[in-house]
Amino acid sequence: MNTKSPILLEAIDVEKHYGKFAALGGVSLQVRANTVHSVIGPNGAGKTTLFHMLTGTKTVSGGRILFDGQDVTDEPDYRRVQRGIARSFQVTSLFLTLSVRENLRLGAQGVAPMHALNPWHEPVGARAQKEVVEAVLAKVGLESLADTPAGNLSHGQQRRLEVGMALSARPKAIFLDEPTSGMGIDDLEEMKRLIKSLRDQHTVVLIEHNMNIVMDISDTVTVMQMGRVLAEGLPHDIRSDDRVRTAYLGNMITGGKA
Amino acid sequence: MLSRWAVPMPLALLLATVMGALGAALVGWVAIRQRGTYFVMLTLAFSQMFYFIAYTATDLTGGDNGLMDVPRPNLSVFGTDLWTLTTPWQFYGFVSLLFLVVFWLLLRVSNSTFGRTLLAVRDNEERAAAIGYNLRLLKLQAFVISGAVTGLAGALHAMMTGLAPLSNAELHTSEMILIMTVIGGTGNLFASLLGSAFYLLLADWLSQLWPRWLLLLGVALIAVSLWMQRGLWGLGEMLWRKLQGQRNTATAAAAKGEQA
């Protein structure tokens, strides 16, 4: 599905070194627009590091990153947001003392961050970004909790708000880092439906451990191991790939050393 | 400025405000590169540096003696006096008015888009950067606003006492302001106001009781840090909620009684 759609994001030989340790040893990746592209691999394979590189949370040690035809390699995260990149975090990262609505408003406002320096006007009227906030609230199913502080939400609700934060920036590409981590079985289905529904308007790059979700909703799956790409392809090709089986799927606990 | 070049008083106050803002911009520009302990160390280093600059530059600052004979001219426009400031009460009125104006401005700032975004940065810097905010710019602006207000406060203080002593640039003064904020509660502006009022009244009262009153203040500070980290304001809020709770349970009980 959608294999012919244009390439939105391209990573070319991206490397990341921490001292002598190479967390990423030259990763190349092409993400096509309006697809769900999953990155899987054992713990420590470098998935989250790759995410940090692609979203600009951390700087690369080598290689290039192109987004929407522009070289964004040297741009920090807050600049890439304006190009249409938004992310969620593996470990929930919200403004816990602020209400759900305020969290999302800040997310929406982040696209035009100079407004944040306005020391005179309260964020009301057009500045409240009401339409965006309401749309995201509906999408992640938190309408009834809009005025609750984010810190009072349940884990599943916080994970959904985490995705909502990224959505509120109306990004072209949305990066989800293990959106289902720590979720109970009831919340999982809901999250799966949510991610699947994002493809119409966004490009989704997903890190996920839950194979049921990955195989069900991905258009492309990239398998990483020890800082490199091991295999890439359609979900059913990946599932039947022998290297992937030995490295990961049959061996989910012990990591990539076997 | 008032004592050397006879600048009109409103202009001198304005210049003091601008100087405060510029100084803060300079310190901020360097200090916000670090967070946590290192950030604190940088600001402390700057404060010590300014102290010793003030100490050494005797021509400009009077060195150890500070600035003496700071005049307190009347508020006048084109030679007509609008507000005479000779007696302490007149000056008190003038400062009170300025205070109300500045306090209103600061309230406005803290409720603004900027203030609300700062709350988010306080909650979670990493996320704030990830959703598009330039933390340095935001922090720098906070620094500049705070510096401007402090500059104005310093100028008014000098006009009040007629002196700008070196001790105003001492670590102790910064510490005192910090203690006021901590005692009041770091949540909002009214809490800081409460804190400074409490500090000044307590200091006044304690110093009459015992010359070593700073020791007692230390004890008070330990108590605040240990048991009421949200300060006096937080304590007030808690008591208020308890009262509300009692009233609610009382009405609930009454309602139940009626039903039965």
What do you see in this structure?
- The complex is a heterodimer of chains A (258) and B (260).
- Chain A is α/β, with parallel strands linked by helices and 258 residues long.
- Chain A folds into two domains: 1-84 and 171-258, Rossmann fold; 94-170, no CATH class.
- Chain A is 33% helix and 24% strand.
- Chain A is built from nine helices and ten strands.
- Chain A has helices spanning 47-55, 77-83, 100-109, 130-140, 155-167, 185-198, 211-217, 235-239, 242-249, and strands at 7-18, 21-32, 36-40, 62-67, 70-71, 85-87, 173-177, 203-207, 220-225, 228-233.
- In chain A, β9 (220-225) and β10 form a beta hairpin.
- Helices cover 77% and strands 3% of the residues of chain B.
- The model of chain B has no long low-confidence stretch (mean pLDDT 84).
- The longest helix of chain B has 29 residues, at 231-259.
- In chain B, α2 crosses α3 and α2 runs antiparallel to α8 (135-161).
- With 260 residues, chain B is mainly α.
- In chain B, β1 and β2 (80-83) form a beta hairpin.
- Chain B has a two-stranded antiparallel sheet.
- Chain B is globular and about 70 Å long.
- At the A-B interface, α2 and α3 of A face α5, α6, α7 and α8 of B.
What attributes characterize this protein structure?
heterodimer, A: 258 residues, alpha/beta, globular, disordered C terminus, B: mainly alpha, 2 domains, two-stranded antiparallel ribbon
In short:
The complex is a heterodimer of chains A (258) and B (260). With 258 residues, chain A is an alpha/beta fold.
Topology (elements, then pairings):
The complex is a heterodimer of chains A (about 260) and B (about 260).
Chain A: E1 7-18, E2 21-32, E3 36-40, H1 47-55, E4 62-67, E5 70-71, H2 77-83, E6 85-87, H3 100-109, H4 130-140, H5 155-167, E7 173-177, H6 185-198, E8 203-207, H7 211-217, E9 220-225, E10 228-233, H8 235-239, H9 242-249
Parallel strand pairs in A: 3-8, 3-9, 6-7, 7-8
Antiparallel strand pairs in A: 1-2, 1-4, 4-5, 9-10
Helix pairs in contact in A: 3-4, 3-5, 4-5
Chain B: H1 2-5, H2 9-31, H3 36-56, H4 58-61, E1 75-77, E2 80-83, H5 88-111, H6 113-123, H7 125-130, H8 135-161, H9 171-184, H10 189-209, H11 213-227, H12 231-259
Antiparallel strand pairs in B: 1-2
Helix pairs in contact in B: 2-3, 2-8, 6-8, 9-10, 9-12, 10-11, 10-12
